[in-house]
Amino acid sequence: MSKKYEIRLSGSGGQGLILAGKVLAEAAVIYDGKNATQSQSYGPEARGGASRSEVIISDEEIIFPKAQNIDLLVALTQEACSSYYKDLKEDGILLVDSKLVTDIPEGKFKVYKVPIIDIALKETGKTLTANIVALGLVTELSSVVSRKAVESAILSRVPKGTEEINKKAFLAGIKKAEEIKKKSNH
Amino acid sequence: MKELVISGNEAIAYGAIRAGCCFFAGYPITPSSEVAEVISLELPKIGGRFIQMEDEIASLAAVIGASLTGEKSMTATSGPGFSLMQEHIGFAIMGEVPCVIVNVQRGGPSTGLPTHASQGDVMQARWGTHGDHEIIAISPSSVQECYTFIIDAFNLSEEFRTPVIFLTDEVIAHLREKLVIPEDNSINVINRLKSNVPPEEYKPFDTSYGKIPPLADFGSGYRFHITGLTHDETGFPTDDSKKTELLLNRLRDKIIDNRDRIVKTDSFMLEDAEIAIIAYGSVARSAKEAILIARDKGIKLGLLRLITIWPFADKEIADMAKNVKAIVLAEMNLGQLKSTVEAAVKGTCDVFTVGRADGEIVTPSNILNKLKEVGIVH
What we know:
The complex is a heterodimer of chains A (186) and B (378).
Chain A: E1 5-12, H1 17-31, E2 35-42, E3 50-58, E4 70-75, H2 78-84, E5 88-97, E6 110-114, H3 116-124, H4 130-142, H5 147-157, H6 163-185
Parallel strand pairs in A: 1-4, 4-5, 5-6
Antiparallel strand pairs in A: 1-3, 2-3
Helix pairs in contact in A: 1-4, 1-5, 3-4, 3-6, 4-6
Chain B: E1 2-7, H1 8-19, E2 21-26, H2 33-42, E3 49-52, H3 56-68, E4 72-77, H4 79-95, E5 99-107, E6 113-117, H5 122-127, E7 136-138, H6 143-160, E8 163-169, H7 170-174, E9 176-181, H8 241-256, H9 259-262, E10 265-268, E11 275-279, H10 283-296, E12 301-306, E13 308-310, H11 314-321, E14 326-331, H12 338-345, E15 350-355, H13 364-373
Parallel strand pairs in B: 2-3, 2-4, 4-5, 5-8, 7-8, 11-12, 11-14, 14-15
Antiparallel strand pairs in B: 1-9, 5-6, 7-13, 10-12
Helix pairs in contact in B: 1-2, 1-6, 3-4, 10-13, 11-12
């Protein structure tokens, strides 16, 4: 990978997207030896309000740290999807929560509709782990960070005692992404 | 060699401790709170003290008091808090009390945009407090520089017995990227000059040592007076015009005479540049990216990055202005440094500005579009 890869995780405040971005950047730098920056934009609210977290991963030095041409956009709310899809590259990937985002914008990018929050609830009994399910999907769909790196970064970040459910959530995301990839290859 | 992925604010806290900071007083405010959060956890581990004060006025008062006991001290705030601190910044300048004030710039005026970025306090850092004075302000462009430059900030404040403003912005404060913790032998830590005379002979503003008088520690047997009023070498108030002139000139000259050592700039692709960008903080990174894009198209663009905002890099800018056709000043405000840059350029070349004050960083395309708009690039 010589080019930089830009990921934007977007939704509403409290969905854990900034944490997901932090984990992804740590995975790339500490465990995969690449360069990464993570930045964020959020409102003054603790819950609700538009929230986005951006991760840029590259083999080279990252100069401008904000995303400009997004390779992969994750949108966990309709508002996030509608306001950010315009920054997607032509051949980029749009990954949305299929229940929360129903109005899918038109474009040349690939669209993956996944019930991310439902998967989190089914696999771990908690919607709270949706950010980690999303991380599994992002890891597998982007192929810019290794599974092992992201898993290690998750385990070093999450509160003690929650390692197992977070691992489960991550694997559920990976599995779903594998299914998607298989389907789109046929 | 230890590598971390942390934010600029966290790097400031760790760098401050590395510089020898033992005391922090502050009042939480976005986007600076992580500095206080991290240092409140770290200082007790090394026997230091953290106090959350009732407001920013009290915060800087506590920092000044702690510094006078001999402890390196710091506070961190953002626009509204920085406004409240102006009175005590003046006190620290007048009393010659070393301290570091971190200002993570957010959108203003007033409470403005709490969670969004700005570089709107560059002039407030220079002239926010009243009266004739010099000030040192440093602006980092990366997480790594948050760590290393905060050490420089402490060193300058200790060496020159003066408050130093660490003028960062929300983009760098909340940006997470790699920090390589420097080896011990690559870090230079300066401590203030202490008194070597017995307490009964000590004068807190004794100029027989040069322009920077040694500072004794409160609580170590030395009794002396510090006041915001104009004072003589004993520290007691005076309104004698001769003594006033001596004091005000010395406060200015201790910084200005050492200007060449204090002022720091960095350049990028400037050697053969026909157009130069002047930028600082996070926007310097936008400028670098714009330069790489322009160079691909054969446009000879370069960057002069201001590391110290104050004292101003006027000589460096004047030298550069002779070799370029135009200068574009890029900053996250509506052109606050334009007249200062123009004063340095003295009409040698055109000066254009590209700025925004909408909470978003000036982007590489904002800069490139400005070049087209003013017709220096087609």
